[in-house]
């Protein structure tokens, strides 16, 4: 509940916030979504829809709106080759739509960023971004444990075994980003 209270919000559908993982682009000290390029501000972010769903409807069924995150941390090497790609953990709350590998949520807040393997400019930028957000920057091996201080993972029993159609499965379309 700590995460919910500090975000100044209540969770209408879930008792606890869900822990999930994703990546961002980090350039010039600004974190942006790898999905749509939208900046991620300090504090909580609400999912938006560019197909007309009202904020109260996001994430809408049969739409791609909402905030995306994976159930498991992105592989340690996933962001290593790209200078501005970084990993981290979020808590997601409000309405949730569960997919095979991850979820779409109504609201989210970053709880930790992942330190890159390399030392140097990228590492310094991640540390600065984490300080600006007021969250820790931690090694990959610690990311999940640190995130679990803020919420719970979605129980595997509540995750769909498969989605209805390939077209409806945004995770296929987006690929492993
Ligand atoms: Zn929508």
Would you give an account of this structure?
This protein is of the alpha+beta class and 177 residues long. It contains four helices and seven strands, in the order αββββββαβαα. It has helices at 2-6, 121-133, 140-147, 170-174, and strands at 18-27, 30-33, 44-46, 67-70, 85-98, 102-114, 137-138. Strands 1, 2, 3, 4, 5, 6 and 7 form a seven-stranded mixed β-sheet that branches. A hairpin with a 3-residue loop joins β5 (85-98) and β6 (102-114). It starts with a helix and ends with a helix. Residues 49, 51, 53, 58, 60, 63, 65 line the site of zinc ion (ZN).
- Give the overall pLDDT as a whole number: 82
Number of helices: 4
H and E string: HEEEEEEHEHH
Record field, number of beta strands: 7
Bound molecules: zinc ion
Concise summary:
The protein is an alpha+beta fold. Helix content is 18%, strand content 28%.
Secondary structure elements and pairings:
Elements: H1 2-6, E1 18-27, E2 30-33, E3 44-46, E4 67-70, E5 85-98, E6 102-114, H2 121-133, E7 137-138, H3 140-147, H4 170-174
Parallel strand pairs: 6-7
Antiparallel strand pairs: 1-2, 1-5, 3-6, 4-6, 5-6
The structure holds zinc ion (ZN).
Q: Which descriptors apply to this entry?
A:
alpha+beta; 177 residues
């Amino acid at each position: 509940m700590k995460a919910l209270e500090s975000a100044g919000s209540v969770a209408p559908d879930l008792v606890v916030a869900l822990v999930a993982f994703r990546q961002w682009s980090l350039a010039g000290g600004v974190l942006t979504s790898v999905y749509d390029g939208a900046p991620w501000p300090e504090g909580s972010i609400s999912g938006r829809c560019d197909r007309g769903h009202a904020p109260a409807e996001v994430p809408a069924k049969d739409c791609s709106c909402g905030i995306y995150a994976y159930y498991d941390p992105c592989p340690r090497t996933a962001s290593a080759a790209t200078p501005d790609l970084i990993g981290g953990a979020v808590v997601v709350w409000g309405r949730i739509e569960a997919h095979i590998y991850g979820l779409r949520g109504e609201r989210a807040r970053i709880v930790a960023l992942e330190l890159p393997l390399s030392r140097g400019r990228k590492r310094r930028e991640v540390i600065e971004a984490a300080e600006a957000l007021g969250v820790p920057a931690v090694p990959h091996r610690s990311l999940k444990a640190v995130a679990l201080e803020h919420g719970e993972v979605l129980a595997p029993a509540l995750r769909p075994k498969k989605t209805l159609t390939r077209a409806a499965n945004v995770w296929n379309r987006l690929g492993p980003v």
